[in-house]
Amino acid sequence: MIQRIRVSCSLILFVLMLHSGLVRQCVWADDHLVTSADLHKMLIDSANSREDNIGRIQRFLSSESAHKALGEHKNLLVKIDKALPYLSDDELKKLAVETQQIEHDVAAGALTNQEITYIIIALATAVIILVIVAA
After folding, report:
1. How many CB atoms lie within 10 A of CB 87?
2. How far is residue 61's CA from residue 116's CA, in Å, rounded to a whole number?
3. What's the angle, vertex CA 60, arms to CA 58 and CA 62, rounded to 5?
4. pLDDT, tens digit, for every residue of 86-103?
5. CA atoms of 67 and 62, how far apart (whole Å)
């Protein structure tokens, strides 16, 4: 009995959608708001931006000041490097901006080795937590 009601309701909904043109619009949609060329360009731009952000972070982590700051904990850099591809585009962008700011502060002499160490450990912790949450 319930199944017959479901089938009847489904049939009625289909007929109403067909009558209102919803089905026709979905099937015969020729005019797209975004062309395939625009979509392709957006995808390439997004991939390039992601690669740039990963490159910035990796350059920072491979810098002499980062190696000095971590000292004997250099295996942490390897873990961060392996975790970077698992971050979202927004997370990578935030980390890239933060590392760029840190590089600027280091170049200006505003940070000590101890502060750099704390920052790198905080970044590593953030990356690891983001990867765990994403998984």
Report:
1. 21
2. 11
3. 70
4. 888 888 888 888 888 877
5. 7
List phi, psi (to 5°) of 119.
Answer: -65, -45
CA nearest to 97, candidates 86, 74, 116, 105? 105
Give me the pLDDT at residue 52, please: 92
Q: How far is CA 57 from CA 28, 36, 81, 102, in A?
A: 46, 32, 9, 11
In whole angstroms, what is the distance from residue 106 CA to residue 98 CA?
A: 12
Q: How far apart are CA 71 and CA 133, in angstroms?
A: 28
Task: Say if residues 83 and 128 touch (Cβ distance below 8 Å).
Answer: yes
Nearest to 95 by CA among 130, 46, 44, 132: 130
Can you state the percent helix, strand and coil of the chain, rounding each to 5? 80, 0, 20
d(CA 57, CA 40): 26
User: DSSP per residue over 103-128, as a string?
Assistant: HHHHHTT---HHHHHHHHHHHHHHHH
How many other CB atoms sit within 10 Å of the CB of residue 98? 16
- pTM for this one? 0.56
Cβ atoms of 99 and 60 closer than 8 Å: yes
